Amino acid sequence: MKEFVIALVGQPNVGKSMLINAIADARLRVGNFSGVTVEKAEVRFVAQGHSIKIVDLPGTYSLNDYTQDERVTKEFLENEPYDLIINVVDTTNLERNLFLTTQLLELDKKMIVALNMMDEAQKEGMCVDHEQLGSILGVPCVKVSAATKKGIGKLLNRAIDMFQFSHEKSKLIYSDVVEEEVAKIVLFLEEKRYKSAFTYRDIALKLLEEDVKTYHQMRDEPLWLELSLILKEALEHLYLHHESKDVSEIFAQERAAFAKGAVLETLTCKKCTSSNMTEKIDAILIHKVFGIPIFVVLMWSLFQLTFELGSIPMEWIDMFFVALGTYVKTIFGEGALGSLLADGALSGVGAVVMFLPNIVILFLGIALLETTGYMARVAFLLDGFFHRFGLHGKSFIPLVTGFGCSVPAYMSARTLKNDKDRLITLFIIGFMSCGAKLPVYVLFVGAFFPQEQAGNVLFLIYIAGALVGLIAAKFLKRFVFKGVDEPFVMEMPKYRLPSLKLIWHTVVIKAILYLQKAGTFILAASMLIWFASNYPKYPEIEAEYAQKIELAQSDEAKASLENEQAKVLLEKSFLAMIGKSTEGLFAPIGLDWKMTVALESGLAAKEVVVSTLGVLYALGAEVDEESEGLLEVIQKEIPFASAVSFIIFVMFYLPCMAASIVFAKESGSYKYLAYLFVFTTMIAWGLSFIGYRIALYM
Amino acid sequence: MIMLSEMNPGEQGIVSKIDAQGELKQRLFSLGLRKGSQIKMKASSISKSTLEVEVGSTLLALRYEEAKMIQVRV
Questions:
Q1: Concatenated DSSP letters for A386-447?
Q2: What is the number of domains present in chain B?
């Protein structure tokens, strides 16, 4: 069965993602491929016996490829195979949206216009004659509302209808001036009985638009001699009329006029009370004086909530895994298998799963920030400030995304047009601590600071990371990526309450991905760490201790001997060998080989940092502290100054492997990845050193 | 005729000339900011470094430097 491919195209903030969810609803799996290829999301499902694939393309204001993500859309539309375009437009902002539609019409593909946000438009008193709009555009228009799910079935039926029928060419009508000149050229070609695969109208338009390929073709024709004269005259007329010699500008004007005309003819306002909700909210949120403080307070609350609310189920999860570990040992015994499962797999995975509540709250906050329209306001507020540090206001968006995960953050930096601005942003995204670093902070902050201060310390860690990021940006702009500033032009979308379902969906997907990672990658890594910390075996040492324990008088002495044995064996393990080989590098910043190994394994994924600590400290504390959680063990085993140094190092060093690969891809070169490694390591080491020395005196 | 950058919040007019070149001009164009558009100054950030304007039914944020390129007939 042939699969039909639908390309979903629209300007940003018109509800494409919401529409895709409404269409596909429960009937399918949403494939949001985490990792390297999230640029266009794809959804597959079966409807009325047809298998359909919808490709959700990045939002674009026009097909002029201004930014990199817009280029993705343009390239897909021009080069990839697809059967139908669904152009999603925001009905409440029809004229601007139709500008893109006019460009899409020129692609000469089957197309449907989905008039989205119909519910909102009706509330504002707008009434659109979709039949008439359809006949003006030459493509069917369907009224839909992704939010209330009205018209979705109709849209789908229409799309399936379109697959069956052959394509009819739509006709964009230009102003009289252009049409007159087109008519002249067409007449000439007709008189000459010129043979071509294209229609005369197409050729005429292409010539007027100065399409290079068409010129190449026509120049070789005998009729060129006469045609060129007609063309010259035609262009002169256009120049005169539009007061410009820039043909692309002239045609942009033409398309804009067409869009305006179409709106004039089809949109009637009964009362047209454009809602001033946005205005009212903006009066507060982007207030000259209060705007930034409000933002800071909101962020602070988010981190407070992350810590406070997250710590409640965290304890239960921790206790659950400790109990499970003990239980597993009673079944599988204290031997290698029991230890592998309890001290390796369960300790490692448990250490990561424990932080699921924190992660969920953080992602919920970021999702709210992204979907309500507040993000653009913050970019507006911070642009002046950012500009001083050599960053673009829009850099704010990838940077905030970076608090969730660096991978999508690196990708969203594509919305920055200027390559240098983009590189600077890419280099400092890692300083915005990602969700996977959160467990490390929560663990250490929980262990070393009183409960009531923990949220503040957490907030401070994030703010400090961001500030160092800004300073680093200034440095890069000043000395490395010098260049002119990119203009700052950005839409401020209307405030919208995000659909609960979409938010729920995003957060659930994040949670599932996190658990999946814990159950696969982290599980394997934990077992590997366990193996590396338990082998090679030293039978002589074990025999020696067995003898000593045998002879010990009290239970207390036995316990301490067993403890000693575990420590001695751990010190001789493979892991210790690795850690000790690089220990010298980390000794000045107060880290022992265990912490060193945790940092090194964190290069694979930041979650591994805590799982490694979990395994290492579960082993060291095997004998008498079995019932204790990781937090208490850390508290006992690690000095405060070393903990500070460790946190600082984690804040700034190289992001995980997946992120590093995406970084190399987005920056365009592995050379930059090498720079990033040197850059981040130097900063991490330097600041850890300072932090360690200061903490020693505290 | 004044420059957009000199307008105060609440003032409105019609765009009469855009001095931007190439891509920036195209960008403004596709966002609906072009010769003949209705424009209204809404708000500005501290020290007027960033401005919020309303064009048609779209809210846009611009820097002071970009607003200096846009001429408005009040």
A1: HHHTT--GGGHHHHHHHHH-HHHHHHHGGG--SHHHHHHHHHHHTTS--TTTHHHHHHHHHH
A2: 1
Question: Cβ separation of B23 and A381 shorter than 8 Å?
Answer: no
Report d(CA B51, CA B56) in Å as an integer.
16
Instruction: Give the pLDDT score at A676.
Output: 94
Percent of all residues in chain A with a pLDDT value above 90, rounded to a whole number: 20
What secondary structure letter does DSSP report for A129?
A: -
Residue A66: the pLDDT is: 67
* pTM for this predicted structure: 0.75
pLDDT-based confidence at A397, cuts 50/70/90? confident
Domain of residue B36: give its range: 2-73
User: Degrees (nearest 5) of the Cα angle A100, A105, A111?
Assistant: 100
**CATH (domain of B61):** 2.30.30.90
Distance, in angstroms, between A485 CA and closest chain B CA? 10
For residue A28, pLDDT over 60 is answered with no
Chain A and chain B share a number of CB contacts under 8 A equal to 114
> A248-295, pLDDT tens digit by residue?
888 888 888 888 888 888 988 765 555 577 888 888 888 888 888 998
Neighbouring residues of B9: CB distance < 8 A, sequence distance ≥ 6: B41, B42, B43, B44
Phi, psi (rounded to 5 degrees) for A246: -90, 105
**With contacts defined as CB-CB under 8 Å, which chain A residues touch B26?**
62, 64, 66, 248, 252
DSSP run (H or E) holding A695? helix A670-697
Q: Which of B23, B45, B66 sits opposite A288 (nearest CB)?
A: B45
Are the beta carbons of A96 and B26 separated by less than 8 Å? no
Q: Distance of alpha carbon A390 from its chain centroid, rounded?
A: 22
**Could you give the 3-state DSSP secondary structure of residue A55?**
strand
The CA distance from A140 to A72, in Å, is 26
Helix (H) or strand (E) holding A54: strand A50-56
What pLDDT is stored for residue A25 in this prediction? 64
What residues contact residue A33 under an 8 Å CB cut-off, 6+ apart?
A41
A649-663 pLDDT per residue, tens: 999 999 888 788 889
Quote the ipTM score: 0.89
C-beta atoms of A100 and B26 within 8 A: no
Q: Which residues of A touch B50 (CB under 8 A)?
A: 380-381, 383-384, 393, 488
Q: How do residues A404-428 score in pLDDT, each as one tens digit?
A: 778 778 877 877 777 888 899 999 9
Record: contact A417-B26, CB cut-off 8 A: no
A-chain residue closest to B34, CA distance: A253
- At position A333, the amino acid (one-letter code) is G
